[in-house]
Specification:
With 158 residues, the protein is α+β, with helices and mostly antiparallel strands. The chain has helices at residues 2-14, 17-39, 42-49, 64-81, 90-103, and strands at 51-54, 108-116, 122-130, 133-136, 145-152. A hairpin with a 2-residue loop joins β3 and β4 (133-136). It starts with a helix and ends in a 6-residue tail after the last strand. InterPro entries: McjB-like, McjB_C.
Length: 158
């Protein structure tokens, strides 16, 4: 038990300072995002995501500083999602990342895609992009057909 706690503390302290300082904000935001995903219908959640753009994947322009900020936010969201006692799936992570990017003034695109698994069951996935960077949910995107995208200019916060 002591060794495990020591290992976790070492892991926490080895992260960049900005990531450690952001954890107390990101961790509860993931919980709130998960609760919103479970409790609200998508038509209400979509208002938090930005302007609907349809099923056309696109990219938004971002400055190098905004891109670096987006990478930091993505790393922190993914790291915090691994340490929540609840399920922080791709939708909760995308919603949390979208809120944080909006607060930081970074334009982003939130996309939703569908695919089928080996048993022909539908699988849904959500991801957030800033320019060519996948902030979160960027694994295996080639297998998903985009069914909806939401765009923000980076000036509005939910």
């Amino acid at each position: 038990m002591y060794a495990q706690l020591r290992c976790r503390l070492h892991n926490f302290l080895s992260k960049p300072r900005a990531q450690r300082y952001a954890l107390p904000i990101v961790w509860p935001l993931l919980g709130l995002s998960r609760a919103l995903v479970l409790l609200l219908p998508f038509r209400l959640l979509s208002k938090l995501l930005g302007a609907e753009h349809g099923p056309y994947p696109l990219s938004c322009l971002a400055t190098p500083q905004q891109t670096r900020r987006a990478l930091d936010i993505g790393r922190t969201v993914r790291w915090a999602a691994c340490h929540t006692p609840w399920t922080s799936n791709c939708f909760a992570q995308a919603l949390a990342a979208r809120i944080l990017l909006g607060a930081a003034g970074v334009p982003c695109v939130t996309c939703f895609g569908l695919s089928r698994d080996e048993q022909k069951e539908l699988i849904a996935h959500a991801w957030v992009s800033v320019g060519p960077i996948r902030v979160c949910g960027g694994d295996g995107l080639a297998r998903y057909k985009v069914v909806g995208c939401f765009v923000t200019s980076g000036r509005e916060t939910p």
